[in-house]
Amino acid sequence: MKLIATIILDGAEIEIENYKLKTEGLRPDILHQCLITLLDTPLSKHGKLRVFFRTISNQLFYISRKCRIPRASNEFNLFITELVTKFKIRSRETNGILAQAVKGNLTTLFGNNIIGLSSKGAPMNSDDWNDFKLASQIHDKTITNQPYTADYDPDGGNPIDLITGIPPFVIGVRAHEGLKDGTATKLVSIAPFGLSAAHCCAKLVSEIEHLWRIY
After folding, report:
1. From CA 50, how far away is CA 153, in angstroms rounded?
2. EC number(s) for this protein (predicted)?
3. Residue 169: its pLDDT value, please?
4. Percent above pLDDT 70 for the chain
């Protein structure tokens, strides 16, 4: 069991620059806000968070913690356009992978224990955090804030297991729609009312940081 959390942003609506696609009503800003929120956290900066997103056309992408998401919306759209058309973005300085398309469905990649966040789910309780607590206990007697260096590298074949022993969380990022049926094996709620996807990301990561004592 590895001390690393996984969050999958599902149902991402994206705009492709210079492509003749219907973009009316799309909300790429939701994905944009969530990526900035997640990658700016101490959990991510210490290398203990992996972030993926899946588009409405079922393309799955990995975003490295080393990737700096553009803040301006037009620059973000250009970033996404490059990613979904070239399937990979590398660092100009190190040539390391910053973002990458990932083949396979969620169950094949992450196992059959996937937790979805939904206001329709059962209220999250202490038992839902057991895997996170266990990972903390067996990782080390005292958790240190040293960077976790085994970052996901798709070019390395199978450098790490996507199935870490800690169930991944799925957060929907499509406006006014919940998770598609079959996306998650279990639904939980973190509030008795609907929250923005970005707030769900922040609240979830904050709880994990508290459990793992990462600040």
Report:
1. 11
2. 2.1.1.-
3. 94
4. 81
